[in-house]
């Protein structure tokens, strides 16, 4: 294998539309991570309350969960490009209003959190709309590579955004950080402006709750997509380590703040390295086995971190965990976006976003409860081992997840979108559902 093939597959960058989207997405994500730190800083500075600081996370997560599935159904009824552009404008306006209150004097904390929640609600529409861009713009054999490039950009902005926010907060204050976030949406808007119309291919979503239920029916009936989301839930709910880092740092590493910061950075460094060297994995036609192996490695690495007594060994293990997590995310997204009919992709992407939001929050809660009954190390070890067992169970009970589409038994028959008796038979026969 040549050295160039070891690095991330950059063929998607030859597609101008994808290249513009990636640039816009990267700048927007950088502004988003800066804004997250700025909101936390402002709310803490105003209240000095951990309860209010925790409410920031709820203001960001609850709209994604509450609005997500209905947003996905709406996205599957219209032009995804227009919906994404409208969502981008809405998020920019919210960021601009946050900047105004930052320059003119702090608004009440409730107003700040309300703006954060509205911002997240617009994002709940934008995310499922953007979920169709990669599979619609790139050839199928480049979808995984495009998702990996998105992941590289996301990991790099996750490293750089908070650090840059810390510097700018010290130099210029919160107003400038919010303003830069608002301006970053201009590039996101530019990235999507030149796209062609992207209406659903096939039968449109039914309105309201019926459309949501159709999406849930697909998720529960399609074994491969269901297995991919269950694997992600197993990895996050059972083994999420973030809430345990302060306790483990106090138990084993003298409560040194620099060590605690390095724990978080190690996960991101591992993710960046894995996605930068993702070329061989994204060229494989077997994202299912890759996802299962990576998710099991995530759990095993965190269990191993629970028994380490050396800070350097712990950081190395966390980098392995971060790399495994990044590979699992890219593989899972590849499965979801290539196995889901376009007419359902908004709803399924919304469900994936909800799993991605709710899973880590539940996992951090689980870790904190178990640690309260025992210790941080026990919570890490038991969570990691349970994750390995759960991932193994999903793989054992979902043989379709271990196959490629061209292997015997690798295809799953298309399932109609609506309930029995309400589908167009020709549309049901032609739906490009794969397993």
Automatic annotation (TrEMBL):
Q: Which residues cross the membrane?
A: 21-44, 50-71, 83-103, 109-134, 146-165, 171-193, 227-248, 260-281, 311-330
Region of interest (Disordered), ranges: 399-435
UniProt keywords (A-Z) are: Cell membrane, Membrane, Transmembrane, Transmembrane helix, Transport
Its subcellular locations are:
Cell inner membrane
Entry keyword Lyase = no
Topology relative to the membrane: Multi-pass membrane protein
Cite the InterPro entries for this sequence: MFS_trans_sf, TM_effector
Record keyword Cell membrane present:
yes
Report the principal subcellular site: membrane
Gene3D superfamilies under this entry?
A: MFS general substrate transporter like domains
Descriptive protein name: MFS transporter
Q: What is the lineage of its organism?
A: Bacteria, Bacillati, Actinomycetota, Actinomycetes, Kitasatosporales
């Amino acid at each position: 294998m040549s050295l160039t093939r070891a690095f991330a597959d950059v063929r998607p960058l030859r597609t101008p539309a994808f290249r513009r989207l990636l640039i816009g997405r990267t700048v927007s994500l950088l502004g988003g991570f800066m804004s997250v730190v700025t909101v936390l800083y402002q709310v803490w500075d105003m209240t000095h309350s951990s309860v209010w600081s925790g409410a920031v996370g709820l203001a960001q997560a609850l709209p994604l969960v509450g609005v997500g599935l209905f947003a996905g159904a709406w996205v599957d009824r219209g032009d995804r490009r227009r919906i994404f552009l409208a969502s981008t404008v809405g998020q920019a306006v919210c960021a601009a209003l946050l900047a105004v209150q930052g320059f003119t004097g702090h608004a009440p904390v409730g107003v700040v959190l309300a703006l954060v929640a509205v911002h997240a609600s617009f994002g709940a529409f934008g995310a499922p709309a953007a979920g169709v861009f990669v599979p619609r713009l790139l050839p199928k054999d480049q979808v995984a590579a495009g998702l990996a490039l998105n992941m590289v950009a996301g990991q790099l902005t996750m490293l750089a955004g908070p650090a840059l926010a810390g510097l700018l907060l010290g130099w210029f204050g919160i107003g400038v950080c919010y303003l830069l976030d608002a301006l970053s949406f201009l590039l996101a808007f530019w990235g999507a402006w030149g796209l062609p119309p992207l209406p659903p291919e096939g039968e449109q979503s039914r309105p309201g709750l019926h459309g949501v239920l159709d999406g849930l029916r697909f998720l529960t009936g399609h074994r491969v997509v269901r297995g991919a989301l269950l694997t992600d839930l197993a990895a996050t709910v059972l083994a999420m380590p973030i809430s345990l880092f302060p306790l483990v740092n106090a138990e084993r590493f003298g409560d040194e703040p620099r060590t605690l910061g390095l724990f978080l950075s190690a996960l991101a460094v591992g993710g960046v390295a894995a996605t930068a060297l993702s070329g061989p994995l994204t060229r494989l036609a077997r994202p299912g086995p890759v996802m299962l192996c990576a998710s099991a490695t995530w759990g095993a690495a965190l269990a191993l971190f629970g028994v380490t007594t050396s800070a350097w060994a712990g950081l190395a293990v966390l980098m392995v965990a971060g790399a495994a997590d990044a590979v699992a995310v890219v593989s899972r997204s590849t499965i979801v976006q290539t196995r889901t009919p376009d007419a359902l992709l908004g709803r399924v992407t919304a469900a994936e976003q909800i799993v991605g939001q709710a899973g880590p929050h539940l996992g951090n809660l689980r870790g904190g409860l178990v640690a309260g009954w025992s210790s941080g190390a026990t919570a890490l070890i038991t969570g990691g081992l349970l994750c390995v067992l759960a991932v193994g169970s999903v793989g054992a009970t979902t043989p379709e997840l271990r196959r490629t589409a061209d292997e015997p038994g690798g295809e799953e028959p298309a399932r109609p979108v609506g309930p029995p008796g309400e589908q167009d038979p020709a549309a049901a026969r032609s739906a490009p559902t794969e397993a």
